[in-house]
Amino acid sequence: MLEFFEGYRNRRSSSPYLWPLKGLITSSFGYRLSPFSSKSEFHSGIDISCSTGTQVLAPADGTVSYIGYNDGYGRFLELDHGYGITTIYGHLSRTEVVLGKKVPRGHIIAHTGSSGTTTGPHLHYEVRLHGAPINPFKFIL
Fold this sequence. Notes:
The chain is mainly β and 141 residues long. It has one helix and twelve strands. The strands form two sheets. Strands 1, 4, 5, 6, 7, 8, 9, 10, 11 and 12 form a ten-stranded antiparallel beta sheet that branches. Strands 2-3 form a two-stranded antiparallel ribbon.
């Protein structure tokens, strides 16, 4: 019985239910009209409007599994929460963690910006299960 509850506690601490920051949702998960191409495109996360430099918090315990830059996400990082769950944070101005670092829920991992392809400062937030994007609202409380 103790093993059951220990496993439950571990899975719960790995579940990204904390908001990564406070802000207004400006774009939801799923198909949307792209602000760049004016065509319907799949949006693999949610966009949260905020000021440049807003602190981004880890929504669950995890390990920093990737830090990088590309044209779309700009400066971004990925946390691995175990159980096949990863979260991605895009358009950052800077990161506050290093590759391989274990971070607890609520830890400051980055600051927002407008790097990459954006319409202005915001956080692009994704949740993935075994690499496939899923709606973050299935987790956020």
